[in-house]
Specification:
- With 424 residues, the chain is mainly alpha-helical.
- It contains 21 helices and 2 strands.
- It has a two-stranded antiparallel sheet.
- Helix 6 runs antiparallel to helix 7.
- The protein is elongated, with a radius of gyration of 36 Å.
Length: 424
């Protein structure tokens, strides 16, 4: 690679400053033919003539016409040439130092005149400050933070996030919150690349255990209370640790901010349920039904809540709604059979109670014939109830024969409204 003498480099770039905007010493626009300089630059770039002469031509263009033909992306091409020259084995340390200042000047100008790539220029500026200029870590960290806080699109975002996390990790002290900030980035990276074990290893190394990790996430959210991403991560960590009470607060915040998000309502309903706040869980599932009336799980979960409350009739009504939404799903029918068992178990063991057990067995038989995921469990329940259903003698003493229909009735069973058919 051809390299210009350092004296010439200084002539072109001596006025470049890392932290303030100043003019680069170039020829006046009156004496520079921008189109000629551009033609020379792009021809050299096309031929991969990555050298100081090419950089000079590129700067002659942008310093005389900074908004030069955006579609040709000249700022990005100059950047690529600078990196190639910097990484060339023949480039001296003295030239590298000048190139570091030069590329930062380029980025500052590119942020203004190539706005679609501004976010990338900002993180690359932080990268150069750290890797090429070995600036104070606080200065580098601030540059990275400004880039990510800008909301601008960033190319190779994972790479630059990991660079910032590494800086945080290397500079952790009692006087800063870098440990929490590093952890926050690694959690974000683990979401972005769930198959990359490196991020999970980093998370584990920063937190002693899951409880400390949860505490870090709580602090991260509390420090940025309006941040939904941090609230969601904290809620999920609470759930992972079985702290359903802790999960309710961030989930409340998320629902208040985005009341139509189905997943938030699902999570808070489960959290209420696990935390024995049954009324709140019921209200949450009912809200889910309004938001998504064709979601079978909401009806099903409501049924289970009412079953646990021994409100068997209400439970069955929601099971039937779940089955209507999802025909062929055997879970609602399996639970319905369990409702009949539950009713009989709590009432007694007279003939009518045995008939209700028979109704449960008949319902389990239907589940078994469906051949779904609950078929084997249904078969187990049929066997378990074999001694609870009416015997041949029970029917004989009541003058009941095969094919007769017996209506289920009595104070325990007025909600059932079904019959069984005698078979022995």
């Amino acid at each position: 690679m051809k390299v210009m003498k350092f004296a010439v480099i200084l002539l072109i770039f001596s006025a470049i400053s890392t932290f303030t905007k100043v003019d680069v010493i170039v020829e006046n626009s009156d004496s520079v033919n921008v189109m000629v300089e551009a033609s020379l630059f792009f021809e050299a770039y096309k031929n991969k003539q990555y050298e100081m002469w090419t950089i000079e031509k590129g700067f002659n263009v942008i310093n005389n016409k900074p908004d030069f033909m955006p579609k040709y992306k000249i700022y990005r091409k100059i950047d690529k040439v600078i990196f190639a020259v910097y990484n060339d084995s023949t480039t001296t340390d003295e030239v590298k130092a000048t190139l570091a200042d030069t590329v930062i000047y380029l980025y500052n100008k590119g942020i203004e005149y190539d706005p679609d790539y501004a976010g990338t220029y900002m993180v690359k500026k932080a990268y150069v400050l750290n890797e090429w200029k070995h600036a104070d870590p606080k200065v580098v960290i601030e540059a990275y933070e400004q880039a990510f806080a800008s909301g601008k699109e960033i190319t190779n975002k994972v790479y630059y996030l990991s660079k910032l996390a590494t800086l945080y990790e290397a500079n952790i002290s009692e006087d800063n919150d870098y440990q929490m900030k590093a952890l926050d980035i690694y959690l974000k990276l683990a979401d972005m690349e769930p198959e990359n074990g490196r991020w999970h290893a980093k998370i584990t190394s920063l937190a002693e255990d899951d409880e400390q990790l949860q505490e870090f996430m709580k602090k991260a959210w509390y420090a940025d209370k309006e941040n939904p991403e941090k609230a969601w991560k904290y809620a999920r960590m609470c759930k992972r640790n079985g702290d359903y009470h802790g999960a309710i607060e961030p989930l409340h915040f998320l629902i208040d901010s985005n009341p139509e998000v189905i997943n938030y309502w699902n999570e808070i309903a489960r959290a209420y349920q696990k935390n024995d706040q049954i009324d709140m869980a019921i209200n949450s599932y009912k809200k889910l039904i309004k938001l998504q009336p064709d979601n079978r799980d909401s009806y099903y979960n409501l049924a289970l809540l009412y079953k646990d409350m021994n409100q068997l009739s209400v439970a069955r009504s929601y099971l039937r709604k779940a089955a209507k939404v999802s025909p062929g799903w055997d879970a609602p029918l399996f639970v319905e059979a369990g409702l009949y068992e539950q009713a009989a178990r709590s009432c007694g063991f007279e003939f009518m109670d045995k008939c209700v057990y028979k109704l449960a067995v008949d319902t389990y038989e239907k589940v078994k014939r469906m051949g779904g995921e609950h078929a084997s469990r249904a078969a187990e329940r049929i066997q378990a109830l074999a001694n609870s259903i009416p015997t041949k003698e029970d029917y004989f003493f009541r003058k009941k024969k095969n094919g007769d229909v017996i209506k289920i009735e009595g104070k325990c069973y007025d909600w059932i409204g079904k019959s069984i058919t005698v078979s022995y």
